[in-house]
Specification:
This protein is of the alpha/beta class. It has helices at 16-27, 43-54, 60-75, 108-116, 134-137, 139-152, and strands spanning 9-14, 31-37, 95-100, 121-126.
Length: 155
């Protein structure tokens, strides 16, 4: 964007990339819109969810505080600081949030909670779509939603 000041930029992410897209969308004043497909809303909650499914014998209540401390040492911030739920409240650009109800990787409730946190979010939920599968299950509706958000910002 620095070399192309007239550039019209947007961000789209899927899964962890969707969470990252939401974090970028809140921080950047260069973006026109954001599309987040099946993001988690809280990093610690997502890691706990996945951990319990993959490692049911592991005491996640003990593991996650240590993981959070390790994250702080490595990155300089706690997981909460890198969690979209605490940032989307400050969104100032149109954002399309997409999630399928059959997602077994990121609970659909996480996107529902994100959608309630900002008036700039348009939420699109598809029944029986798996993780990152909305575009495959409902390609025409997905395209319509993308066209709507592009129309909002006149791209």
């Amino acid at each position: 964007a620095r070399n192309y000041p007239q550039a019209e930029l947007s961000v789209l992410g899927e899964s962890m990339g969707a969470a990252t897209a939401l974090l970028i969308a809140e921080k950047s004043d260069k973006l026109r819109f954001c599309v987040a497909d099946c993001p988690y809303n809280d990093m610690k909650a997502e890691l706990t969810f996945v951990g319990k499914r993959r490692y049911p014998y592991m005491p996640m209540g003990l593991v996650m505080p240590l993981a959070d401390l390790w994250f702080k040492i490595l990155t300089g911030c706690f997981m909460k600081d890198a969690s979209p739920l605490y940032h989307v409240k400050k969104l100032q650009i149109p954002t399309l949030l997409v999630h399928g109800t059959a997602d077994m990787t990121v609970p659909v409730e996480m996107s529902r909670e994100l959608a309630k946190a900002s008036e700039f979010i348009t939420y699109f939920e598809v029944e029986n779509a798996p993780h990152a599968g909305v575009i495959v299950c409902e390609p025409e509706k997905y395209r319509e939603k993308m066209q709507e958000i592009c129309g909002e910002v006149r791209v």
